[in-house]
UniProtKB/TrEMBL annotation:
GO terms for molecular function: pheophytinase activity. It comes from the Eukaryota. This is AB hydrolase-1 domain-containing protein. It holds the Pfam family Abhydrolase_6. The lineage of its organism: Eukaryota, Viridiplantae, Chlorophyta, core chlorophytes, Chlorophyceae. Residues 3-181 form the AB hydrolase-1 domain. GO terms for biological process: chlorophyll catabolic process. One of its GO terms (cellular component) is chloroplast. It comes from Volvox reticuliferus.
């Protein structure tokens, strides 16, 4: 992430549906990556289907062709869109067309099987020094509100805007609302800079992004999307339970990490 590694080049960052869970392969070159399981996936090289060429056609026929079929894509879009009719067959056709490229299967595989970065998601987030906008669709079935709440707890100075009704693709499903959210946040940040308040949170500067404020944006098709500036606190029993569980896990994992670091330091000293 450029904003974490080169903060001198980035004045602000927008994270859309940000979540730490994506790559599951260990970082390249790590001890875990040299294990039997991951070595088996590495034999074909990054960016290609990790199966012998002699059976690749079976993968394409029985998995890839089913995955990229119009029916499967339509079902997936209905799952992730809050507006179940918010997409049309023209969008489905464009997605299918992209999958017909000779390199489409390898490109898709390289995303699904890409290794983790050297720095974890949380480590990158902790390095951020620029203003951050967290933008989430409230009805996203994959990146549910609790993920946004976790990010807000990790970045308490970030602005957290939630769109509703909106699912996993708010930039396509509710483009007017997303654009309004971006423009509002950017204008607030520019006014903070103009006032010479440095890194002050726009919500603390009293310039129109107060926590708890919300507004409606009417999309081209007449749908009203509410944009809400929220504080990230849990709002349901499940979200409170998630907070409790992850608080315990965070302390446990932190203790394990410190123990591992102490052990490594002891070995180095010895």
């Amino acid at each position: 992430m450029l904003a974490a590694r080169r903060p001198d080049l980035v004045r602000g960052l927008v994270l859309l549906n940000a979540t730490p869970f994506w790559a599951f392969r260990p970082p390249s070159g790590s001890a875990a990556a040299r294990g039997l399981l991951w070595s088996a996936l590495n034999w074909a090289g990054d960016g290609s289907v990790p199966v012998p060429e002699s059976v690749r056609h079976l993968v394409e026929k029985y998995w890839w062709n089913q995955l990229r079929s119009p029916d499967t894509i339509s079902a997936m879009l209905r799952l992730v869109y809050a507006d179940k009719v918010g997409f049309d067959m023209a969008l489905v056709a464009r997605i299918v067309e992209a999958t017909e490229h000779p390199g489409a299967l390898d490109a898709f595989t390289s995303i699904v099987l890409s290794p983790k970065a050297e720095l974890s998601f949380d480590e990158l987030v902790d390095r951020l020094r620029c203003p951050v906008l967290l933008l989430y669709g409230k009805e996203d079935p994959w990146v549910r509100p609790l993920w946004g709440q976790r990010m807000k707890r990790r970045l308490p100075a970030a602005t957290y805007l939630e769109l509703s009704p909106a699912g996993h693709c708010p930039h396509h499903e509710a483009p007017a609302a997303v654009n309004r959210a971006l423009r509002t946040w950017l204008a607030a940040e520019e006014r903070v800079r103009a006032q010479g308040t440095g890194d002050q949170d726009p919500s603390e500067a009293g310039i129109g992004l107060d926590v708890g404020s919300s507004w409606e944006v009417v999309e081209a098709d007449g749908r009203a999307i509410r944009v809400s500036h929220i504080d990230g606190r849990p709002r349901s029993v499940m979200e409170w339970l998630d907070l409790a569980v992850w608080s315990v896990l965070g302390r446990a994992l932190g203790a394990i990490g410190r123990k591992g670091a102490d052990t490594e330091e002891s070995r180095t000293t010895a």
